[in-house]
């Protein structure tokens, strides 16, 4: 009877948490590069992004003054650019992986002309924080302003961040804005195509509450 | 001009050193927030946001993210639309500094919490702010900012032509009531003219 009661209570808490949980947001910025350069985006070109997280949900428990969290998106294969008219291009990408790493060495370095000695290697060292795949990734680019935007869905299946959220996997979404070198006032390192500034949303299934092991054991002593 | 460019360079070096961020990162003001977007020409655009550099990415002027919160507000008037582009005229941009302890935390339900504290930088959009709509739920924005005031105006290497841009989405969950879009963008360091000079020439500046 006691066990049934506990299970019922746990189920109720899970349901209540699910209704209340807000998704976790991760804010990042960085740079993209595509084989052969961008634009043009030819079929088969591979898009990659390296970046650094400068803000993330407190529930992840990461102190960015101690650890850096870096981003590496790659294996996005272009299906070729489509002229939307008015100087606007759209590109659909297939495949794609999205990985974030937590690293106390705080050594990320974009360098120039990626891939190079420090990119992506200094963005993929440390411990895997979130790892997953991308789908439905689209990029839009306005040639008139040298700027654009992108978005894609993510499926996270690995990393300490999922453990922190008490989840085995999580759906995700990312979007961001892009600026070409001229539009950004030359603030794109040589050899990169675009400056990116984006957000990752990670689905949080249940609410998480910090509790000591002793407090957890107390739940079962009553 | 030489002194101005040199001072700007030295300021950036100092910033990079003090922020503890990777030297490879170009300085910028990175912001994340939400926008109230007008439905028709004549309406007002308001973007309320928080600076998110947090000592990870260097800022163009030294900011204290440990004890201060920085809010950034953009306004403009929907002037015209053609194709995917909306033009917003009369744009303004303001950055406020407010103490974390004893100040008022930014709250999207309370607009005044974004404009309290010290106005450290204020400026105008040079020309129009352009807001593109690529799909009904995804787009971007781009503008150039001329800073004109604020307590930290004198700390800028140059007040003119700071590139500002980013993306917006309506697909992100958790957009606060009364707002339509999540805006994520940044203001990049304006380029200061640089002139080649010999080492003797540099030393001569200090004699």
Description:
The complex is a heterodimer of chains A (222) and B (207). Chain A is mainly β. Chain A has 3 helices and 8 strands; from the N terminus they run αββββββαββα. Chain A has helices at residues 2-20, 160-164, 213-218, and strands at 24-34, 46-56, 68-85, 88-103, 127-142, 147-158, 170-180, 194-202. An 8-stranded antiparallel β-barrel of chain A has the order 1-2-3-4-5-6-7-8. In chain A, a hairpin with a 4-residue loop joins β5 and β6. Chain A is elongated. Chain B has 207 residues and is mainly beta. Chain B has 2 helices and 9 strands, in the order αβββββββββα. In chain B, a hairpin with a 2-residue loop joins β3 and β4 (85-99). The two termini of chain B are 16 Å apart. The relative contact order of chain B is 0.19. Classes of the chains: A mainly beta (222), B mainly beta (207).
**Fraction in helix of chain A:** 10-25%
Within the largest sheet of chain A, what's the order of strands? 1-2-3-4-5-6-7-8
Extended strand count of chain B: 9
The parts of chain B where pLDDT drops under 50 for at least 5 residues are 1-23
- Write down the Rg of chain A: 20 Å
Rounded average pLDDT of chain A: 90
Mean pLDDT of chain B: 88
Structural class of chain B: mainly beta
H/E series of chain A: HEEEEEEHEEH
The whole-angstrom Rg of chain B is 18 Å
**Strand-residue proportion of chain A:** over 45%
Give the helices and strands of chain B as they follow along the chain. HEEEEEEEEEH
Shape of chain A: elongated
Name the poorly predicted regions of chain A. Answer: 1-20
Beta percentage of chain B is: 35-45%
Give the termini distance of chain B in whole angstroms.
Answer: 16 Å
Tally of individual helices of chain A: 3
Oligomer: heterodimer
